[in-house]
Amino acid sequence: MCRWAAFIGQPIFLDQVIENPGHSLLVQSKAAEEAKTAINADGFGVAWYDHRPQPGLYRDVLPAWSDPNLASIARQIRSGLFLAHVRASTGSAISRNNCHPFASGNWSFMHNGQIGGFENFRRSADMLIPEELYHERKGATDSEVLFLRALYHGLDTDPAKALCQAARDLDMLSREKGETPHLRLSVAMSDGKRLFAARASSDHIAPTVYYRRCETSAGWMVVSEPLEDGQDGWVELPPGQIATFTQDTVDLQPFCVKP
């Protein structure tokens, strides 16, 4: 399982999430505490928003802790909205195109979890991607299919509904051709103005998501695991919920995968 962290608020340096905290994303890449595997060494990525609607994107296949460029970039870039991810592959190859976050237009997207038996029906999953979006398919992961399918269902119009429909599509395909668990999902995504986080599962085990209000930066941290051990204020997103964050607000609504 992967680990990820996202932020929306007054601009901060990326290292305030990626490097500086006691349980930062770099620490989680070597010693995750709430994932199936402690090591997340199959690549990393960062998507951030600044002067243009489209996010900047930096990804590589190295373990996050071994790339000095990541630390250097994180210490210099400030952003009021960014997503960061360290990857533990569930079957797809270690390649830059398989690293999260993914980006299309103004959207960025990252995922932790799995679609059960995806390797057995990858061709069928690819066929879910409409022709007008297939040129965006760069890698081979289930996560990228989920993202492109959500774009097809209308992320720009109704992000929660579009993501839910995409998750249902892949859950149903797994039930037809895959294996259990059919769907485990924690997602963070952004349109450059809002930050969304969802948590769901086809069984009783949903990947963790937490969020916390940060008064010093007038914003929100949204993470797979809290960034400091024993720190107050972290709220666990309930399974079957999707949260919409702006700089000042958070709104929760049901996120139903099963039809």
Topology of helices and strands:
Layout: E1 3-13, H1 15-18, H2 25-31, E2 44-48, E3 56-60, H3 68-76, E4 78-86, E5 102-104, E6 107-115, H4 122-126, H5 131-134, H6 142-153, H7 159-177, E7 183-190, E8 195-201, E9 210-214, E10 219-223, E11 235-236, E12 241-245, E13 250-254
Helix pairs in contact: 6-7
Distance between termini? 26 Å
Low-confidence stretches: none
- Number of strand segments: 13
Q: Enumerate the strands of the largest sheet in spatial order, edge to edge or round the barrel.
A: 3-2-4-1-10-9-11
CATH superfamily (homologous) name: Aminohydrolase, N-terminal nucleophile (Ntn) domain
Total domain count = 1
Shape: globular
CATH topology: Glutamine Phosphoribosylpyrophosphate, subunit 1, domain 1
Strand content: 25-35%
The average pLDDT value, as a whole number, equals: 95
Rg, nearest Å? 17 Å
H/E series: EHHEEHEEEHHHHEEEEEEE
Helicity level: 10-25%
